[in-house]
């Protein structure tokens, strides 16, 4: 299993409802902590792309345009 953290290409604020996935310099400490917690939970549950529909899942999917992600993993 590839590290979930290795799949994350962009850092965003999880409070932003209209996140711009191309803007990669807008992370705050709370968001970094939040993503790390989601990553730890996903790794513990062997979910390669995070929990479907989660912030972590959206980061991985949007940050990996050339990586084929099964659609079942991106549905909430």
UniProtKB/TrEMBL annotation:
Residues 15-24 have a biased composition (Basic and acidic residues). Residues 1-32 are annotated as: Disordered. Residues 1-14 have a biased composition (Basic residues). This is Uncharacterized protein. It comes from Cladophialophora carrionii. The lineage of its organism: Eukaryota, Fungi, Dikarya, Ascomycota, Pezizomycotina.
